[in-house]
Amino acid sequence: MQVKAKKHLGQHFLKDLNIAQQIADSLSYSGYKHLVEIGPGMGVLTQFLLSKPVNLVAMDVDRESIAYLNTNFRAQFSKAEINQDFEVVNADFLNDDLVERFQAEEFAVIGNFPYNISTQIVFKTIELHAYIPEFAGMFQKEVAQRICAGPGSKTYGITSVLTQAFYDTEYLFTVKPNVFNPPPKVDSGVLRLVRKANYQLECDQKLLFKVVKTAFNQRRKTIRNSLKTLQLSADLTSNPIFNKRPEQLSVSEFIELTKKIDEDAVSNQ
């Protein structure tokens, strides 16, 4: 039995076992008991996760993949080869209540992600950062580079800042199209996110997200002009930071800017 890759699900099944092993080995598996694999497909990555010291939940929206993993795939492994609990679930990572699933315990995330929802997966991870200490996976190369980009880069943007507010990001390696079935039309990139030791923000999270998104929606303008809709006081916008463009601000500067905006709003009530 083979699973046919479905275009509408953005499926490109990894064939290269060495790359699958590298992805599986990119997490520390330390400090948490649970791991979610998103989009396991035919289990090429899954097989290397079974021996890791975590309880594995392989999660896919594709019923054909679920059937394959529960029959053909499971038949290849004896109980002795599976280190912890292994569960295959037909569920959507983006809509699943993961906090309830793991009873508010921490869990890591890994996968060869469908490219059409990969950015949404990152934003869901950011939303659940208090529960997700580690994350590793395959993206379209440009998306992976954008997430890991630093200030001053043309690719540095909303996803970069919001991810790096909570996680240390690392671009691990590039993967060519020929190791997938079917081959995508672009190169892929594998990255790792490790939650910062002090991931509690020194500013209002909701306001930070608003400031970052508003600023980068007009990224060629100065912060002063791009944040005009926030109706900030003239005293605040006289600060030299408002002369910069958003791609020139580090994550810590965005956090400091958000604090100033919050303080300004309170003082002008």
UniProtKB/TrEMBL annotation:
<dbReference type="InterPro" id="IPR029063">
    <property type="entry name" value="SAM-dependent_MTases_sf"/>
</dbReference>
<feature type="binding site">
    <location>
        <position position="112"/>
    </location>
    <ligand>
        <name>S-adenosyl-L-methionine</name>
    </ligand>
</feature>
<dbReference type="GO" id="GO:0005829">
    <property type="term" value="C:cytosol"/>
</dbReference>
<comment type="similarity">
    <text>Belongs to the class I-like SAM-binding methyltransferase superfamily. rRNA adenine N(6)-methyltransferase family. RsmA subfamily.</text>
</comment>
<feature type="binding site">
    <location>
        <position position="14"/>
    </location>
    <ligand>
        <name>S-adenosyl-L-methionine</name>
    </ligand>
</feature>
<feature type="domain" description="Ribosomal RNA adenine methylase transferase N-terminal">
    <location>
        <begin position="19"/>
        <end position="197"/>
    </location>
</feature>
<keyword id="KW-0963">Cytoplasm</keyword>
<keyword id="KW-0694">RNA-binding</keyword>
<comment type="function">
    <text>Specifically dimethylates two adjacent adenosines (A1518 and A1519) in the loop of a conserved hairpin near the 3'-end of 16S rRNA in the 30S particle. May play a critical role in biogenesis of 30S subunits.</text>
</comment>
<keyword id="KW-0949">S-adenosyl-L-methionine</keyword>
<keyword id="KW-0489">Methyltransferase</keyword>
<keyword id="KW-0808">Transferase</keyword>
<dbReference type="InterPro" id="IPR023165">
    <property type="entry name" value="rRNA_Ade_diMease-like_C"/>
</dbReference>
<dbReference type="GO" id="GO:0003723">
    <property type="term" value="F:RNA binding"/>
</dbReference>
<feature type="binding site">
    <location>
        <position position="12"/>
    </location>
    <ligand>
        <name>S-adenosyl-L-methionine</name>
    </ligand>
</feature>
<dbReference type="InterPro" id="IPR001737">
    <property type="entry name" value="KsgA/Erm"/>
</dbReference>
<dbReference type="InterPro" id="IPR020598">
    <property type="entry name" value="rRNA_Ade_methylase_Trfase_N"/>
</dbReference>
<dbReference type="Pfam" id="PF00398">
    <property type="entry name" value="RrnaAD"/>
</dbReference>
<protein>
    <recommendedName>
        <fullName>Ribosomal RNA small subunit methyltransferase A</fullName>
        <ecNumber>2.1.1.182</ecNumber>
    </recommendedName>
</protein>
<dbReference type="InterPro" id="IPR011530">
    <property type="entry name" value="rRNA_adenine_dimethylase"/>
</dbReference>
<feature type="binding site">
    <location>
        <position position="92"/>
    </location>
    <ligand>
        <name>S-adenosyl-L-methionine</name>
    </ligand>
</feature>
<dbReference type="GO" id="GO:0052908">
    <property type="term" value="F:16S rRNA (adenine(1518)-N(6)/adenine(1519)-N(6))-dimethyltransferase activity"/>
</dbReference>
<feature type="binding site">
    <location>
        <position position="39"/>
    </location>
    <ligand>
        <name>S-adenosyl-L-methionine</name>
    </ligand>
</feature>
<feature type="binding site">
    <location>
        <position position="60"/>
    </location>
    <ligand>
        <name>S-adenosyl-L-methionine</name>
    </ligand>
</feature>
<keyword id="KW-0698">rRNA processing</keyword>
